[in-house]
Design goal:
Beta-galactosidase, Chain A, domain 5, alpha+beta, 21 strands, elongated
């Protein structure tokens, strides 16, 4: 009975299963997926390659780690690496470091792009540094051009060859890197080589302003806040030793302002380790170099032209302290962040050579956008897991205004970026320090310029007085010289000897009026250079002038004049008017045709000064206006006769030595003659200082007479007692 029940249960169960499988068949098993080719990147998981062996997964994990402490996985076998399949691709991103808000405490705002892991733009946060075109925006000093190149783009021949094989034209400079880490002050970009044997990392970092306890403005004294730190790391992920070379692009799109009036365009500047000299390569020279290469090799691509320049003669191979591109008021400098000593850097350089690069050609070659590239020496990487499998090179990118306090400290020590000139640079530096001090104590820049003018003219007063002395003496002797001209006629040799004898007789140096001008010339050149490089002059206001670093531009004319342009500038006209007034007041009138011709030439030259001053910054024009007004006031206060020590040119023809030999009587007679001649009609009016000196001399003479009288009375009193006793 039990057996029958068991058999019946089994039969029913089998029938039920058979009927169920017939009515509801099970789904087919999943088909195995095809293994993707090596090198295909998965964007969501950060570029991890699927379908590879465990050793390849370990290499990818090592690529995801950082250079300082992530556990290293199993070293991949080079023989297991297949041919690259596709390019490792990441999304395009933009990262911003720093801030333009003064409350955040940054000096710059840096915009970085994942394309080439490069610097796209740099803006200054200083509220005084506005854009000339749009005063509501902060000035952008990097990334202003339309060139596809960007600052600190990195290229490597080995990695670029792999990328180009996968997709023609692709390189590390054009591919998007992965943003591995980001923050307010730093960001890290990574990119693995297509063969999985190498990982490249770029870390950028900016620093906040340091508040000085002494109260100094950190925006003018803290160079680290304008410096962007960049670290390049190369990590070997293979079991074999590797060697890699890379190139780095310098600052691109450095701002060029006021192109119609500026005389300082983009220049490449370099200073070398343990070298006193520097190298300068202008925009026009760079464009001429590249234009000639393009003419010789019209079919070469840009990269091949670039390599030809790098291998040619126009390169620098010495270890550099810095290399940069500078304009009138701003500079972008790149320096190796190398802690080694100068001897080690000279013995084992990390940079093989540097060469100029043309980014954007222009019809006017001076306006061309230029930069430079540097190529490294070979970087040797030991097998993964061994000491030396990671190499790091650091660079410092300064992007800011050309203040001495920002440029002079290490590591740049870029004192030559503030180009004060070769001969009178020390004078320009001193004057710039004085101007910065006056501006720092709170004076507006126009008033600081006027105060600087007064200080300089006061220091030069002895020379100005000597010049006035010479002019006054020559004016007194003009009738005598005219007599000599009539006497000797066309005999120039006898006339010259007679003039020299006349000057010797009256103790006059014919160069007395020229030497003070030559001595003042270096000071004027130093002032010009000082005001032409003072960044604080930029966007300073005075009356109708909104930018003292450019011509005043009172209004725009409805037409454009050759060389002058369309802006009408009133300050050059004021300067020329003051020059003409000075000539009218202080130059002796012409007495013959030759002198009249000289006067006409002087007037023509003065008019040409207006053309020369047309494109001069308004701050410089203010200096010349203040200096001219000072000169006129100085000569008027002195008076043209005060400085004249030559005896009056009388008919007796006395010599200067006679007055000193005849004692007090001769001196008194000369004073009486001067006093008598001063009362004659047509005689010039004495200056205030001259009258003051004469009053002092008269008081001194009266005091001497009083002493003589009192001395006589005392002698009479001494004699009287003797007489009475006798």
């Amino acid at each position: 009975m039990e057996t029958r029940r068991l058999l019946l249960f089994l039969a029913l169960s089998f029938s039920f299963v058979l009927i169920w499988t017939r009515l509801f068949p099970p789904p087919p098993p999943p088909k195995p997926q095809a293994e993707p080719p090596a090198g295909v990147a998965d964007v969501e998981d950060g570029g991890r390659r699927d379908g590879q062996a465990d050793s390849d997964q370990g290499a990818a994990a090592a690529a995801e780690g950082t250079a300082d402490g992530v556990a290293e996985s199993e070293v991949p076998d080079d023989t297991a690496q297949g041919d690259p399949g596709q390019v490792v691709r990441y999304p395009q991103e933009t990262v911003v470091l720093g801030s333009l808000d003064p409350q955040d405490g940054y000096a710059v705002q840096v915009e970085l792009t994942s394309r080439g892991a490069a610097v796209a733009s740099v803006r200054l946060a200083d509220p005084r540094m506005k854009d000339l075109e749009n005063r509501e925006e902060q000035v952008q000093i990097l990334g202003t051009s339309l060139s596809p190149h960007a600052t600190l783009q990195t290229a490597s021949n080995e990695v670029d060859r792999q990328l180009s094989d996968l997709q023609p034209g692709l390189s590390l400079e054009t591919v998007d890197w992965k943003v591995a880490e980001r923050g307010r002050d730093s960001v890290t970009f990574t990119y693995p080589s297509p063969d999985g044997r190498l990982e490249i990392r770029k870390i950028y970092h900016v620093q906040r302003l340091k508040r000085d306890a002494e109260g100094a403005d950190p925006l003018r004294t803290d160079p680290a806040a304008y410096t962007i730190r960049c670290r390049l790391q190369f990590r070997n992920l293979s079991a074999r030793q590797q060697s890699i070379e890379y190139t780095l692009t310098g600052p691109c799109g450095v701002i060029l302002e006021n192109t119609e009036h500026t005389r300082k365009f983009r220049d490449i500047k370099l200073e070398f380790v343990n070298a006193s000299g520097s190298e300068v390569f202008s925009a026009s020279a760079t464009q001429a170099l590249w234009t000639e290469l393009r003419r010789l090799h019209p079919d070469w691509p840009e990269r091949q032209l670039d390599e030809a320049v790098g291998e040619g003669e126009d390169k620098w191979t010495q270890p550099i302290r810095y290399a940069g591109v500078d304009v009138q008021f701003f500079a972008a400098l790149l320096a190796p962040d190398d802690p080694r000593s100068a001897e080690q850097r000279l013995a084992h350089p990390r940079i093989d050579r540097i060469w100029p690069v043309l980014l954007e050609p222009r019809r006017n070659a001076s306006l061309a956008d230029i930069t430079f590239r540097l190529k490294s020496t070979p970087v040797v990487l030991q097998p993964s897991g061994q000491e030396g499998d990671i190499a790091e090179h650091g660079y410092l990118l300064f992007a800011g205004p050309k203040h001495r306090a920002l440029l002079d400290p290490p590591p740049f020590e870029a004192d030559r970026v503030l180009d004060y000139g070769s001969y009178f640079g020390f004078i320009a530096r001193i004057l710039h320090d004085v101007l910065s001090f006056l501006y720092g104590v709170g004076l507006p820049y126009w008033l600081a310029i006027i105060c600087l003018t007064v200080i300089v003219r006061c220091c030069l007063f002895p020379l100005s007085r000597k010049q006035a002395v010479s002019a006054a003496r020559m004016k007194e002797l003009q009738p005598k010289i005219n007599e000599l001209k009539q006497k000797y006629g066309d005999d120039r040799e006898k006339l010259a000897r007679a003039q020299m004898e006349l000057w010797r007789k009256y103790d006059i140096n014919p160069l007395g009026g020229c030497l003070p001008v030559f001595v003042q010339f270096p000071v004027f050149i130093g002032l010009y250079t000082c005001l032409n490089t003072a960044v604080d002059l930029r966007l300073s206001r005075f009356l109708w002038i909104d930018n003292l670093a450019a011509p005043d531009a009172l209004f725009q004319m409805p037409f454009s004049l050759p060389f002058l342009g369309q802006d009408f500038n009133i300050l050059p006209c004021i300067n020329v008017t003051l020059f003409l007034v000075q000539q009218k007041l202080f130059m002796p009138p012409p007495t013959d045709e030759q002198q009249e011709l000289q006067h006409k030439m002087m007037n023509v030259m003065t008019i040409l000064f207006a053309v020369m001053f047309w494109h001069v910054p308004a701050g410089l024009c203010i200096y010349f206006v203040a200096s001219s007004l000072w000169s006129i006031g100085e000569r008027k206060l002195l008076g043209s006769g005060l400085v004249t020590k030559t005896p009056a040119v009388a008919a007796d023809g006395g010599t200067p030595g006679e007055s000193s030999n005849n004692g007090r009587i001769q001196k008194n007679s000369q004073k009486k003659k001067k006093a008598a001649s001063a009362d004659k009609p047509g005689r010039r009016t004495k200056g205030f200082l001259e009258r003051l000196v004469e009053a002092a001399e008269q008081a001194k003479e009266q005091a001497e007479q009083n002493r003589q009288r009192s001395g006589g009375k005392n002698r009479d009193r001494k004699r009287r007692p003797g007489k009475s006793g006798r």
